Amino acid sequence: LRLVVLISGGGSNLRALLEASEDAEFPARVVAIGADRDADGLAHAEEFGIPSFVVPFGAYPDREAWGGALLEQVRQWDADLVILSGFMRLLPPAFVHALRPNLLNTHPAYLPEFPGAHAVRDALAAGATQTGASVIVVDDGVDTGPIVVRERVPIQPDDTEGVLHDRIKHVERELLVQVVLDIANGAVDLAALR
Ligand code: GRF
């Protein structure tokens, strides 16, 4: 399975996929890594010798133009699956429609709970005793697509946002690697999800 992973930040979930693909048995390879900015996580591409590309959001007149340029880059890699992993930009409909359903996103909450860019902070602010991690098929909404898998993560009373986010990320990575395995071996059919 040829994967293109898109990031905006540290790329710790990306790193988990890169480490998994070190195992010759793992049925997927990250063939390219993309970002909307000069993301710290691009260092993982360097370290693992994976081609990378940056399509800076600010370099385009609008979201549609940026999305078109990003899609053009992604398309060059003949990906079977594009994974948004800590990618913090909303993609224009044309990008989503071109790749759906082979476009996944990881989210640090138990969707549909706490969608959006501040899921971890929102769970804490809500006084929740548990949250979660989810992998979904990206649709036109914000974190509204079909859920591929999700798992509960406990919240401890003295959790800070950082501590809770790290606990969630550990689960996110496991889910992401498992979803890639399940898609590669046919256990999950993204086209069948609703
Ligand atoms: C992840 O929790 C992701 O779900 C969220 O932001 C975090 C990015 O972490 N959107 P990283 O860049 O993979 O370390």
UniProtKB/TrEMBL annotation:
<dbReference type="InterPro" id="IPR004607">
    <property type="entry name" value="GART"/>
</dbReference>
<feature type="binding site">
    <location>
        <begin position="88"/>
        <end position="91"/>
    </location>
    <ligand>
        <name>(6R)-10-formyltetrahydrofolate</name>
    </ligand>
</feature>
<comment type="pathway">
    <text>Purine metabolism; IMP biosynthesis via de novo pathway; N(2)-formyl-N(1)-(5-phospho-D-ribosyl)glycinamide from N(1)-(5-phospho-D-ribosyl)glycinamide (10-formyl THF route): step 1/1.</text>
</comment>
<keyword id="KW-0658">Purine biosynthesis</keyword>
<comment type="function">
    <text>Catalyzes the transfer of a formyl group from 10-formyltetrahydrofolate to 5-phospho-ribosyl-glycinamide (GAR), producing 5-phospho-ribosyl-N-formylglycinamide (FGAR) and tetrahydrofolate.</text>
</comment>
<dbReference type="InterPro" id="IPR001555">
    <property type="entry name" value="GART_AS"/>
</dbReference>
<feature type="active site" description="Proton donor">
    <location>
        <position position="107"/>
    </location>
</feature>
<dbReference type="InterPro" id="IPR036477">
    <property type="entry name" value="Formyl_transf_N_sf"/>
</dbReference>
<dbReference type="Pfam" id="PF00551">
    <property type="entry name" value="Formyl_trans_N"/>
</dbReference>
<feature type="site" description="Raises pKa of active site His">
    <location>
        <position position="143"/>
    </location>
</feature>
<feature type="binding site">
    <location>
        <position position="63"/>
    </location>
    <ligand>
        <name>(6R)-10-formyltetrahydrofolate</name>
    </ligand>
</feature>
<feature type="binding site">
    <location>
        <position position="105"/>
    </location>
    <ligand>
        <name>(6R)-10-formyltetrahydrofolate</name>
    </ligand>
</feature>
<keyword id="KW-0808">Transferase</keyword>
<dbReference type="InterPro" id="IPR002376">
    <property type="entry name" value="Formyl_transf_N"/>
</dbReference>
<feature type="binding site">
    <location>
        <begin position="11"/>
        <end position="13"/>
    </location>
    <ligand>
        <name>N(1)-(5-phospho-beta-D-ribosyl)glycinamide</name>
    </ligand>
</feature>
<comment type="similarity">
    <text>Belongs to the GART family.</text>
</comment>
<protein>
    <recommendedName>
        <fullName>Phosphoribosylglycinamide formyltransferase</fullName>
        <ecNumber>2.1.2.2</ecNumber>
    </recommendedName>
</protein>
<feature type="domain" description="Formyl transferase N-terminal">
    <location>
        <begin position="2"/>
        <end position="180"/>
    </location>
</feature>
